[in-house]
Structure formats: structure tokens, C-alpha cells
Amino acid sequence: MGKPTGFLEFTRELPSKRSVEERVNDYKEFVNRYSDEKLNQQSARCMNCGVPFCHNGCPLGNVIPEFNDAVYNKEWKDAYDILTSTNNFPEFTGRICPAPCESACVLGINQPAIAIEEIEKHIIEIAFEKNFVQPKKINKRTGKKVAVVGSGPAGLAAAAQLNYAGHSVTVFERDDQPGGLLRYGIPDFKLEKWVIDRRVKLMEEEGVTFKCNANVGVNVNVNDLLREYHAIVLAGGSTVPRDLNVPGRELKGVYFAMQFLKQQNKRNANIDPLANAAVESNILAEEVLATGKNVVVIGGGDTGSDCVGTSNRHKAKSVTQFELMPMPPTSRTQFMPWPTYPMTLKTSSSHEEGADRKWAIATKEFIGDENGNLKAIKVVDLEWKSAEDGRPASFVERAGSERIMPCELALLAMGFVNPQYAGLLEQLGVELDERKNVKATEKEYKTNINKVFTAGDMRRGQSLVVWAISEGRECARKVDEFLSGGLSVLETKDQTAAALMF
Ligand SMILES: Cc1cc2nc3c(=O)[nH]c(=O)nc-3n(C[C@H](O)[C@H](O)[C@H](O)COP(=O)(O)OP(=O)(O)OC[C@H]3O[C@@H](n4cnc5c(N)ncnc54)[C@H](O)[C@@H]3O)c2cc1C
Ligand code: SF4
């Protein structure tokens, strides 16, 4: 424990951000770094709990009290080693994780939680600055070849771990650059793309091969992969968006969030947003811009919030965000006590930049002009009834609340239902579970097809980057066991934690 009285002396502070007025004019990240003193104080708050609930709250099993202690003592190499023993990509999670570890932090019982996510980001960025992050030398190659399909966080983590185990790994990606939703989905203002390039370069130097514009099941033959590789990891994500089938859905001006967000990621990278439609997904025939429009974002989650931030940067006339559910409470209630994940109101940095958030509202119809362009949206308010556990359970439309709002761009951000079946999955003949995700248990990550494994959103359904990394790592261990015919050289997260904590 760095400083026994730290949690009494200092309160939680997050780093400053660039002002809203400034940051909405560009797509750069806007969270500043802590001063050395502030970083020291924030790590000093950690109580090094006997039972560190933070560790349990993190899907990766990050060994948090130990790295907080190393940061407090300015033992940067130790902090880096501890952090990366369980997390391949802290530079991603340190920027965009919703930090379930912080919701579980013991200090959260009666004080604001430790700023774990920010500490994580500082450790990895300091490690890069101090040149601790070097390509690892792989001493012994096994002669086994593994194909990883999909280069999102799950595919990247599986590839990195399998490479460390000595296998020769090739990652196939249908987009023109690796990264999955980190690259084409999450806006640059949350995660600048040089962060992905830096990691991919390291992985290449460690021996991982990346093949982009390679859509397995379309321009890469599935049977060739089965013939040429000793194992295959399917990490293609959950890419089929939930649609809203109300009258007027076909109008010009109603799009899926990902069609809008991906175009902006491409513009930021100086890539033609309309190019490569033959190979990639979500490519439209026309550019979608929010500039000067009344934008309605339908869906209150992360993706919706990213559409809000991007629309404000496009200089939309107005930005409104709809959520079907009622507004959640601002703090924990009796139904969500610590350390459960609190379903409280989340105000993202994009919301800070301006949006009219409407709760308990449903879209009844998209209304077009004579040329088939969206011009308005018909909505109705909802009245929710809660169940005994406090959760909203059923609703009815509020009589007389139906109205029409001007809207020239509607972005559907209501989540993803399942992975795409046509192509890769269909040709392999993989079995799906009841939610239409690829069927494989969280223990084995193995599909019904011999030597074919799966991880990430493709297996667990739409989720988080931290879960995708965790799945990629766990899946890699199972693939390594399969290839070695026995025990894996890769540790479980419990083994790593036990070695570091005791
Ligand atoms: C807009 C948006 C914002 C988000 N923000 C956050 C956030 O702030 N924090 C957070 O934790 N999570 C966030 N998420 C969720 C998170 O991005 C995902 O849970 C995570 O990326 C899933 O990782 P994955 O590797 O399983 O799949 P993905 O990241 O979806 O990657 C799958 C990859 O596989 C490729 N692929 C698919 N099929 C094939 C094929 N046949 N051949 C070759 N390649 C193929 C795809 O092109 C894609 O690149 C967000 C999601 C979205 C959509
Ligand atoms: S639960 Fe919070 S205070 Fe306790 S060890 Fe983890 S980060 Fe530190």
C-alpha cells in the first residue's frame, strides 16, 4: 500500500479536458495527462484492500492494487510489467473502457472510486515514453500455423497470445486496416488511430502477419484456410445492426450509426469513405454528413453517444438523442447496491458537448418530402411501470403525446443483434446459439467444427473492448492446449494474479 492515509487526504480527480468550444472543431483526443503530483496522489488513494473487489470487477483480472502501489512508488517498469501481465492492450482500455473495476472498487462504498482507468493509461504511455515497450523475442517456434479471422480487440489479443506461445499467426481482416471497431466505429476523439498503428507495428515486429482487404468467405476461400492452418480463430464481431422497421425506414436520411461513424473514421485517415465497397462492410454509395441538419440519434448507448459527438463536429443544426427506457437514477439505489454494476445515468464527454437527451420516447414513423428525403419524425412518449426489483418492466404510450419533430438525419444506434452468417459462418457450417451468436462455451471457445475456435462479440454478442481482449486471451490458451495436445504455456488470469498478489 503506497500511502496508508492517501484515501483520507485526497479525493478522486480526473485529468482536465480541452474545452468543449475548442474540441468540437477537431477529431483529436481531448483528455489531458495528470501532472506527476496528481498521478501520485491518485495512486496514493488505493487502500490495497485485503479482498480487492476491483480485481474481480475487471474481466481481465487486472492486478490493480499492485500496479497502483508501483505507480505511487514511481516504479514504472514494475507497474508496466504488472499491468501487461493480464492486459495486452492497456492503451485501448485506458482510453475507452467503461471501467467495471471502478464500479467494484471498495472505496466506492462511501467515497468516489480510485481513478483506475486513468492510472492504467498513464502507466502504458509512460512505458512507451521510457522505451519499456519493445517487441518480445519468441524463442521457440512450434511449426503450427493459426489463422485469426477479424482484427478487432478479440482477434488482436488471440493473435498476440498465440504468437507468444510460438505459433505462426496470420490475421485476416476484410477492412483496409486492422483494428475492428477500434479502427472503424469508435471515433478518433475517443481513440486516435495512431494508438492502434503503434500496437500493430509491434505485433508485426514480433512475428504476426496481417492480411487486410481479406474477406474470408468472399475473396479468401474458407476451405483454403481449413487446409492450410492447424487452427482457426473466428473473431469477426457482432456486426448485424438492430433495425427499426417503422413506416418511412427506406427514406434517404435514415442510416445505421455504423454507416455514419465509419465514414468519418475514414475521412480522418484521408481515405475515401466510399471506396472498397466490394470487400468491406457498411460502405454506402453516398456520403452522410450531419452538417446543418436536425439530427436524431435513436439509441442511448455508447454508439449513440459517438453519433452525438460526431454530429456536433459536423456542425449539425440540432442534435437530439432518443432512449426508449426512462431516465436512470443519478446514483445507486437499493436495487443496485455496491459492488453490483450500477445502472445509473451516464453522461459521456459527447453529451457534455451538447445534445437534447429524451427519455421514454418511441419513434412511430419517418416522414419524407416528395423526393424521398427525410424531413421529420413522428414520436410518442411512453409511460413505464417498474417490476419489484426496480427495473422498468412494461410501458404504454402516453395518450395525446404523439407529435412531429423536424429531422433530416436519423441515425439508428440500437445495438447489434448477432454476427453476419452469410459468407464465413455459413460456408464453415458453424452452429449458432439461441441468440444467433457462434456457439462455443466460455470454458472451451471451441465451435462444432474441428480446429475452429471463436472469441469476442462473435461468441458472446455485442459487448466491450475489455471483454473482447479477455476472450481473445482465454481462447488463445484453449487453442494452444489443442495444438500442443496438453497443457498450455499461456497462464490463466488466476495464475497470473496469484503469482503477483501473494
Ligand atoms: C460505435 C461503437 C462504439 C463503441 N465504444 C466502445 C467503448 O467506448 N468502450 C468499449 O469497451 N466498447 C465499445 N464498443 C464495443 C466494442 O467496440 C466491441 O465490443 C469490440 O470491438 C468487440 O471486439 P471484437 O474483436 O469481438 O469484434 P470487432 O471489433 O467488431 O472486430 C471484428 C473484425 O472482424 C472483421 N471481420 C468480420 N468478418 C470477417 C471476415 N469474414 N473476414 C475478415 N474479417 C472479418 C471485421 O471487419 C472487424 O474488423 C463500441 C462499439 C461501437 C459499435
Ligand atoms: S478495490 Fe479500490 S481501493 Fe481497494 S485495492 Fe482495488 S482500487 Fe484499491
TrEMBL record:
Gene3D superfamilies assigned to the protein according to its UniProt record, in alphabetical order: Alpha-helical ferredoxin (1.10.1060.10), FAD/NAD(P)-binding domain (3.50.50.60)
GO biological processes: glutamate biosynthetic process
GO MF annotations in UniProt: iron-sulfur cluster binding; oxidoreductase activity, acting on the CH-NH2 group of donors, NAD or NADP as acceptor
Cross-referenced Pfam families: Fer4_20, Pyr_redox_2
SUPFAM superfamilies the UniProt entry points to: alpha-helical ferredoxin, Nucleotide-binding domain
UniProt xrefs under NCBIfam families: GOGAT_sm_gam (TIGR01317)
Protein name, as recorded: Glutamate synthase (NADPH/NADH) small chain
Annotated ranges, domain FAD/NAD(P)-binding: 144-472
PANTHER family: GLUTAMATE SYNTHASE [NADPH] SMALL CHAIN
